[in-house]
Amino acid sequence: MAYDFDLFVIGAGSGGVRAARFAAGFGARVAVAESRYLGGTCVNVGCVPKKLLVYGAHYAEEIGQAQGYGWTIDGATFDWKTLIANKDREIQRLNGIYRNLLVDSGVTLLQAHARLIDPHTVEVDGQRYSAEHILIATGGWPQVPDIPGREHAITSNEVFYLESLPRRVLVVGGGYIAVEFASIFHGCGADTSLLYRGELFLRGFDGSLRDHLKDELIKKGVDLQFNTDIARIDPQADGSLMATLKDGRTLTADCIFYATGRRPMLDGLGLEQVEVALDERGYIAVDDEFRTSAPSILAIGDVIGRVQLTPVALAEGMAVARRLFRPADYRPVDYATIPTAVFSLPNMATVGLTEEQAREQGHKVTIFESRFRPMKLTMTESLERSLMKLVVDADTDRVLGCHMAGPDAGEIMQGLAVALKAGATKRVFDDTLGIHPTAAEEFVTMRTPASI
């Protein structure tokens, strides 16, 4: 059968764009449909604008520390509108880049909602297109618990477009987004409380890092309330919001921001037309080569709920493009040793196994830790401390995990991810010369085990 396209991609986020571009580069006839914004969550309401806001929030600390280096900065003020306007301009620039990447690759771009009609047919704006392969890359969508007054809360879809900085903010959640935005709001000058229903935020990260970040945020003045959840939200006559907690207490704020998880974005996709199966969590079920229960339909990225990180979606998109159209270059996605960072203030970053995971997997481990005040802060009044940690297999000497909380943690961890991917041992770390004076050299100078 002759098809209109070899590959039809639904969703122009990171994974979809990567798959489309490279498939087209391999000679395939490719179309992409996107009804919202080019670049997906990451570019528009995720990683990129969030990092820009983190930079903006950090300047408050930079200004405060400048005096220790002889700088006098009088009358410094912050304007939220300027930050948001400049962020919007940068995102618009990136949208244009994504458009050019697709169009210049020979991809047919359809900026409208796509719906599946059958395993080889997609409908866009009333027009039907046939394709040998269809790739679903529609990403995720933030969700707010079903409580009275939930309509008064905002999510990551709205937070980047707030017209003014709220004076008082309640951030609800315990994952990346919640912790990062607690830092953003606090750094920009808002009275910020972080509410999390569990014992401690950032579940799944190394316990030492979680405790360390908790202590640092408290020192900075962020109000952390664990084992806390909101039962209802009520608007007040003065325009504020009153949150009634499940323990009966009430908190008043000008903004309540929920970052309590994301669901797969399947709305109006037409999965019922093609009998694409979902897993027990509601994500699209796929095999090791990203095929769904309908063999001609594939899915990647957040919509399959594996590892919800932009670089993972990119790798999955590349794997699909290669397997379908350049099989000689195909290699499966390796989900082991994925580095990640939390852009809180201070930053956190990690790669490999946590101490808890290593012990659970039966490794006999040796732990190396270094806690210190960063050199940049030694001439300031800041009491912030950094933490670096190595988890080492005591029998093989292989480094199983690297963890850090402190300035530029993400930048430092990227290089260490290469070392762990290559199977580096602690001896290799020890034999590597450090760059002095840097914080990063601590990772190659830790000699005394903290625990065994």
> What do we call the CATH homologous superfamily of the largest domain?
FAD/NAD(P)-binding domain
Q: In percent, how much strand structure appears in the residues?
A: 15-25%
By CATH, the topology of the largest domain is FAD/NAD(P)-binding domain
Distance between the termini: 63 Å
Supply the number of structural domains: 3
- Number of DSSP helices? 11
The gross shape turns out to be globular
Q: Nearest-angstrom radius of gyration?
A: 24 Å
Structural class per helix/strand content?
alpha/beta
Descriptive notes:
This protein has eleven helices and 21 strands. The relative contact order is 0.13. A hairpin with a 4-residue loop joins strand 12 and strand 13. It is globular and about 70 Å long. Strands 1, 2, 3, 4, 5, 6 and 16 form a seven-stranded mixed sheet that branches. A five-stranded antiparallel sheet has the order 17-18-21-20-19, with helices on both faces. A four-stranded parallel sheet has the order 10-9-8-14, with helices on one face. By secondary structure, it is α/β, with parallel strands linked by helices. The longest helix has 25 residues. The chain has three domains: 205 residues, 3-Layer(bba) Sandwich (FAD/NAD(P)-binding domain), CATH 3.50.50; 111 residues, 3-Layer(bba) Sandwich (FAD/NAD(P)-binding domain); 105 residues, FAD/NAD-linked reductase, C-terminal dimerisation domain (Enolase-like, domain 1), CATH 3.30.390.30.
